[in-house]
Design a protein that fits this description.
Elements lengths: L1 H11 L4 E7 L6 E9 L7 E8 L13 E7 L6 H4 L3 E4 L4 H24 L1
Antiparallel strand pairs: 1-2, 2-3, 3-4, 4-5
Length: about 120
């Protein structure tokens, strides 16, 4: 998992995002939540990336084990169901070819933030 995490982390800057906080030791369903801020216009636009834990994983799993997907959302998820309402990228085989979909969705969220700000 750490290689996949590093790939995502390292590509964020290419798409105008900066990780401003990382939360760990969360409930069973979330391995980690990254708080992101846009460094492109609109600067400061917040979004979140959540690393989702496989619901069938054993309860004694270690950090970064049994992570099956990442979720992108404009609000911080407070439970598994709300996390799964955002864009989900499975980390199974072929995930890296689909990685641009994650960044495209983050761009959509940036656009939603602009739309909210102008209301």
């Amino acid at each position: 998992m750490s290689t996949k995490r590093a790939i995502i982390f390292n590509r964020l800057a290419d798409y105008g995002w900066n990780v401003v906080a990382e939360e760990q030791n969360l409930e069973w369903w979330a391995d980690e939540i990254w708080s992101l801020e846009s460094v492109w216009s609109p600067v400061g636009c917040p979004t979140y990336i959540t690393f989702l834990v496989n619901p069938t994983a054993e309860s004694n799993r270690r950090q970064r084990e049994a992570v099956w997907a990442v979720c992108a959302s404009i609000t911080k998820p407070n439970d598994r169901l709300s996390a799964e309402q955002g864009f989900i990228l499975s980390l199974k085989q072929g995930w890296e070819q689909r990685l641009p979909e994650l960044f495209n969705y983050l761009e959509v969220l940036r656009g939603q933030f602009i739309a909210k700000a102008t209301l």
